[in-house]
Specification:
The protein is of the alpha+beta class. The chain is built from eleven helices and 14 strands. A hairpin with a 6-residue loop joins β10 (about 155-160) and β11 (about 170). α6 (about 215-235) packs parallel to α8 (about 280-300).
């Protein structure tokens, strides 16, 4: 992925035939400190990112072949012998250049999210609240149109859109258009995170909460099985229980992030719970119980649920009291 913000050009339309790329780089390291050199021809494009001391990274795309890291840097530094590039130089703020340089190292943390369970606007808000440093890939409909939303430490840096030739743009109008297109035509999303150790961004991790105990998971599993039996006994309710439950978890994900089906932490299927997160017992019970009670209320089943949970409440009275959970 060859991406560079192009809103601060220092010099444009240089012909690589007349350039010594190494000397050009050294000059602008001293002249502007931090920035990027963008290379473009009819068959290839590339970028070198730099600060005042070093080349931070490089990326080169030629037909169906892509190079990143040291190999891309070496090829671009000697590109005059191989490519007929036009070269542009851009100044990039110091607090941003490390972000753009680190994009090739991003790793997918959520894959193939669907508008069936979430919407792009909500996903963007969620990533902002989680202080994501990375980007969201968006494929609209059958992939005829695409977009990227760039986020650094919870702050939107702009986006890239297929209808704007894929160039990074900071205005909000295209972001709003991207959201409206996914609402109208459906879409799929990937969330990619840049490891903080690849960037000069300070981050203080929160102390991990005490993870949920096995007894708590057994208790919640019995709760969900009881509720599933109630729903399945109502013939007028034709919706698939697991699908309905996941949709409710998506709604609750803003308050209970571990319930987000796309996070892969909490899963209920085949009447079994699997959990791979670090939420506390209190948060886990509160999140699942809130979801179940809200679903039951919406389905008109809350009185029946409360009645059928009598044995469950009696069995786990001590645990619920310790957690301060009031049914």
């Amino acid at each position: 992925m060859v991406i560079i913000p192009r809103d601060k050009p220092v010099f444009e339309n240089l012909n690589i035939y007349y350039l010594d790329v190494k000397k050009l780089l050294e000059h602008y390291q001293g002249e502007i400190g931090t920035g990027g050199i963008y290379f473009k021809s009819h068959s290839a494009e590339g970028v070198l990112f730099f600060d005042k001391d070093d080349i931070l990274s490089g990326h080169l795309k030629e037909k169906n072949i892509e190079f990143s890291g040291s190999e891309a840097v070496e090829r671009l530094l000697s590109a005059g012998d191989t490519y007929n590039f036009t070269v542009n130089v851009y100044q990039i703020a110091e607090e941003e250049v490390y972000f753009w340089a680190s994009i090739p190292t991003a790793e997918k943390i959520y894959k193939d999210l669907s508008t069936e369970f979430t919407d792009l606007e909500g996903l963007i808000k969620k990533m902002i609240s989680e202080k994501l440093t990375g980007y969201i890939e968006v494929s609209i409909g059958n992939g005829d149109e695409t977009g990227l939303i760039f986020i650094i430490n919870g702050r939107i840096m702009g986006g890239s859109y297929s209808w704007e030739n894929g160039e990074p743009i900071r205005n909000k109008e295209n972001q709003k258009l991207l959201i409206s297109k996914t609402k109208a035509n459906g879409g799929a999303f990937n969330v990619c995170r840049i490891p903080l150790n690849n960037m000069k961004i300070e981050s203080q991790a929160d102390a991990p909460a005490e993870s949920a105990s096995g007894n708590t998971l057994d208790m919640l599993e019995e709760l969900l099985v009881t509720f599933e039996n109630i729903v399945l006994s109502r013939k007028r309710i034709r919706t698939d229980f697991n699908k309905m439950l996941k949709q409710k978890f998506v709604e609750k994900a803003d308050n209970y992030a571990f319930l987000d089906p796309f996070a892969g932490e909490f899963d209920y299927s085949d009447r079994k719970i699997s959990f791979a997160g670090d939420a506390s017992d209190n948060d886990l019970v509160s999140g699942v119980l809130d979801s179940v009670k809200e679903m039951a209320r919406e389905l008109g089943l809350l009185p029946l649920l409360v009645a059928d949970l009598g044995p469950w409440i009696e069995k786990y009275t001590q645990e619920l009291d310790q957690l301060g959970i009031d049914i």
